[in-house]
Amino acid sequence: MTFRLPSSPLLAVITLAIGIVVLWIALTPFSWDNDEQGHYWTARDIYEVGHLPPANEFPTVMLPRAPKQAANQFRYHALPPTYYLIVAALFNFQPEPTAGFMPGALIGRGFSAFLYVLAVVAIYFMGRLLVSGDEDVAALLAVGFALIPQVASTGASITADALVLTSVSLLGWASVHAFRRDWDWPATACVGLASALILMSRPSALPVLLVPVVMFAGCSRRDMRKLLIKTIAIVGLALVPNLWWMIRNVVIFGEPLGATAHVGYMDVQGVYAATSEFAMYKGNAGLTGLLDLLSSTDWLLRFHTRLWFTGRYDSLSLFGVILAATLATNTLIAILFAVGGLRSPLDIQRPGITMLPAALLTCLLATAGLAAVTSLEYGTFVVGRFSTPVLGLFLTATLGLFTTTRWTTLGRVLVTSFGAAMMVGHIVFWAGYVLPDLVGEVLPH
Fold it and tell me: Is there a contact between 339 and 358 (Cβ–Cβ < 8 Å)?
């Protein structure tokens, strides 16, 4: 019996994505990263009582034994509940410990893995639209996305960030699909439903809603009446599935998304004081404080490392320079597209498509800015993973569009280099950081 590789690029991408995420699940212990324990216990609270916490249980239900509980054990009950409700329901299929995992933990990771693979598939289809059906380039883009270590780590953890990963990728695909279809009704509905998933995931995903706004505004054949009707339809499709929990949050916290309530409560209870970075970057609010944070501290260096990898490590040496060069190159390409320095035949067919990289770059900067402001105001540790889904979308969309310019050969080289760099990054990350870390936890001290 001979083993044959999948002949379809999409099937090969799916096979690779499944292999990557299964490897991560098998080798990383529970609560290794991504605040997994906090997300797990949020879902388990719901599973054990059979419903969301009522208003009279807040705020103590968010941190039952505050403030002495470990920092990674707080709950996320103030944030959108969709992910936690699904995982809680899945707990019924693993009520007992399995393969060394706590009850529900393995199947919860399995759900995140499914979301990860779905995100990779969405990137593949978005790439195929951007490169005019070139399946090989689309597959390379999807593989590069799948191999970003923080993306894979998210897919192997019980965390609502896995839903962010999927919703951001699906919105990227839906926006490009709608643009190519001149925003016909089925494509418009896809954008509305993908936007609903953004609201269901986490508030950190909200900046990516700028993408369909830019794509919609760039539609060349505008009929103001149809434009208004479709805008209402998109907003309606995004809001209606989420109204029930948004109203609940307004009643309990006075805000629909719960983000301020969550971060504020963690700060009041002293959770952040349990981390080594507590108040390390706390400073004056406003533009002056933000500029001082970026220019006179190592916040940006830590953020950059955690954007690609995880919050467990802060030094990537030379490889960090390579990643910075990758990000800088794509930023330059996005700017050139925005100012007209680069043109694509796609822009002639559908004027405005080349604004996509600039829109995604803006989203990336917005998520990074939110992370910086949170560090300034609350003294929180540096969080890069909230920006990682947008980073992956930005890189794949920018490189994909670049291959359609007159610099096609260079574009293909950059796409291949992106996939290769992420493959090397995976190997460097595991060999130099993860495996020694895991071995150190197993061996006696």
Answer: no
